[in-house]
């Protein structure tokens, strides 16, 4: 990637889909709207049933919600688990999480998630209870095998990709156990004490990564966190999970983890499985009837119940589980093709710990007879939840507990190796009957060329005790006499291979006595086949340790805390960041095998001369930082093809350099890449540490921040301890060294001595004497930079061309919103009533120019078919091709640019944005008339200039991808797509080419030729349309440059890099004359309060433009006019507010009039505009002469000089109160804003005459401003001086009743 790479704080790129099927999810906004509408129809009993599990885990699923037949809700099925569907026939047994992490392969991780999702969906399970992503903290932790190891970055990559695969099938992934559940001992009565910053930097990121990939459920852990139960912890569930991580889904308890009814107020949404304790006959629940009584009594607000139900329903709508989702059938079979994926993962996760003398791989040239020894090589013994309480037997494909399956079709090592050996004519003997009979094992081993001894250990969930191990392991020894068995075999055969199936590290007292050790972990269904593939090199070994293999239990930072009696066990995470290899580094403990270790049959060499550098897009674009790149050259020096897994470890600046960050681990994994090289092949790899990974979490500001001084170190190798490259790189935020000063004396053959005393001066400069007694230059007062080097390089032939389709040239006429023309007319009416006829005539002419539809959020897409239908009707009525325009504003970047942004989407919603674009493209495609579509990035330039912000850097990258997608999708035969560059212009109009052009170049190279029509840019308070004479400085202090010149300059710059024939549209929406002051000496930042002109193609006075056009609806304000908004200025406050085209915001009459009068070019020479008939009693024509109002009606009054006397008590009341004062009331079918108030009432103007505004009888305050009131429950869209405003389903403003 030449310009940018992904900067997600906790990610590697999600790998491509492995199958053709992928659910097209709904937009979040649409899903939530549907969910809210559904919940509004529910009774209290139905809501209670939706949050309280049914049948206490003894129903059709381990977790179950009852159907609501009258509303079409089929119920909800939640089922274990992370390694396959539990308690179901025809379920593939997938590899453990630890094995998935061992692959170091994001694409394979995604494939496993897809396959699991396919089976879950086929069985009608709505939510799979997984994956688990607790950390490998203590080596004896019972469920270590379910998680992704000891490193946060690796765990985040695995979580992100597995969840992305699951959700692609329309299945809800339920991430667990949130958070601090790293041991089974006393898990329901322990308190995990963890520093907030450690939580943010070590334990939260894998969960956040999964949420980014669409996880729809989260399971609260059993344990307390810092003294509060996780399932009742509002800081954890509401503030962190739902707000900080932007989690839209539901939170469920772990099973029987609810202890009171108040969790629903603190972020818990589901009580699973419903009862107070385990048991098929248990009916009592802490929720259920108890929760209902609390709601009915007012003790608990029903809004908490509604919120929980909405979150459940949102996920069902999001993943379209109301659309033909299969019925519950846990025995359905959808396993086709999955054994192959699992086998690949099993092989790729085998870690070769040592392989002295190249004992492996097996070949018939080396070995004729192989002995296989150990009970672990046999088919596994089947027990409930894989927990054989007396004694396990056979291969350990998974641990025990809820995260297992029925363990069908498990491949065992003995059968798999025998099957494979027969193909090479190798004889297999075995002894698997009794691991305690070491003499017999040695006898069989001695009679073979190679001995393979298979040994095991096991662990699992705490509700089962297996061979004395209650979840957590008692110790790190091999089970079933494993150490003695290996020792006996190794003594009998020098070529002994030890294969270990276990949930992690085991003691290896024999490590120096055997030549080869393989760690196979818990690889799932294909345990035997995966091993055989590696032994015979049918699959090149790639597995890497996702944990550190210490020499003994005491080497690790942490152990399981047993606790005493029935008191809460305090589990102090006092090690902070230092788990796994970070602890070993801190304590200077040498492990047996380091994190990331895993040998291959091929041999690799890394060039140690690699250089690390700050990756900042291109040399021309200096502000967007990708991270720290290191270009590594790696070579396969062997005769065998193979994979090398490059790993990058980052060292943060020291606490002495930046005291804010404190002490960090010396090395932290921050990037990895698996590279395939053929024998003797050499490759260059650019390994990027994302910029986000160079930051620390500031708990004071609750944000990720950059360091400010010191140096970073990047170490690159093939494991944590096998490092080839150690580079230092200066902190980007460190104060730069002064730039080298130009030495004028060099041209005369002398050096410079800038700080020396001046002893001589002539026309060339000031001179001194250096230490050698020679002349040296001190200063050149009138120095100017040397001329730029000339070049004879020709401008390259264009390779990218703009789309020749010009919708402006195609159109016969232009669509103008009737509502907008009504608003212009209202302003016209007010001016006539005030006697300003000349001004009114100018304002009227503005109504002939079109405004676009502004699509600022996902709901606004509903306006597209509405507008296009109106245009179609006009085309049918006139026989003309009528152009309409849309601004596509809702790019996903909300969290970066909160002030500038009006879009609803955040950077995590790229998929939502793409769905939104797909919907809009569908409407465009079905329309017959010409369309202009403007893709407007929200403060793109602002994000570039603030790229030292993690969110801004991430948002820029996300927007680039979104822009390219939108251009490609909307480039249709009837659509001219323009990319707006106005926001980029904020970087500085006269000097931004070095920043702007690389961005546009990258966009166009990704989009390709003939797609984008061109660009649009807007005049602002910074620049005029045409160059002023005399020149003047802009508001920002920049030298004035006209918008027209700017368009030509950009296109010329693009031509020089091979991009030609790009159209351009100038948007004059902000103001026509530079530096217009709207109120006294103050600047009021009113966006869009300006005048758009000439939408015709190729304006004669401004050639090479497609159009000069009003490309923003008038008025949406940056806040200077609104109290409480950022940038508010009291002198800019406006009482006269109107609303223009649907969803477009507000514009302000006085500013609008001033800008209309001062527009450049002027409106004065244009013909009058005739307003259409809006249904008023008397048609309006701007050429009608309206007499100046007499003294008696200039201002409505009830004085005694009026023609009509004041009403007396005997006068019957009339409907129109103004008639008693000699005026009529305003007509019902027009828009009549209140423009004057006195003691009589509110006044407006109708056809140039005062009219009284009829007072509403239904207390709908917004009717006085021309709008109905909203339906009950409508959300507040904005708030101004008049009140709170919402939006109707038709996209029209409505007032929310007080």
UniProtKB/TrEMBL annotation:
Record keywords, A-Z: Carbohydrate metabolism, Cellulose degradation, Glycosidase, Hydrolase, Polysaccharide degradation, Repeat, Secreted, Signal
Q: What is its EC number?
A: 3.2.1.21
**N-terminal signal peptide:** 1-20
Q: What's its top-level EC category? A: hydrolase
> Where does it reside?
Secreted
Q: Which GO terms describe its cellular component?
A: extracellular region
As for family, the record states:
Belongs to the glycosyl hydrolase 3 family.
General function of this protein: Beta-glucosidases are one of a number of cellulolytic enzymes involved in the degradation of cellulosic biomass. Catalyzes the last step releasing glucose from the inhibitory cellobiose.
Identify this protein by name: Probable beta-glucosidase G
Q: Which organism is it from?
A: Anaeromyces robustus
